[in-house]
Amino acid sequence: MEIIAIMSDAHPLDPFMTKADAVSALAERVGCSPSHLRNLRARRKTASLPLAKRLSEATGIPMDVFEKRGSEEPAEARP
After folding, report:
1. Would you call 33 helix, strand, or coil by DSSP?
2. 76 three-state secondary structure
């Protein structure tokens, strides 16, 4: 059961994040910093629509993986 839990935490970017030089190359290719990619992979940040599109084109991963989640509060509802 533990293996299933570990696998469910996997992010589609994992295969592209195996080496520092691979992270740097992908970051340069899509126009963001390596630290931003690491934050996306760790799910601490979400990608803007243009970045989600570039990541999708560069990796073949569907854009919706990178876009903001529906659980976020809409901007007009924020004080």
Report:
1. coil
2. helix
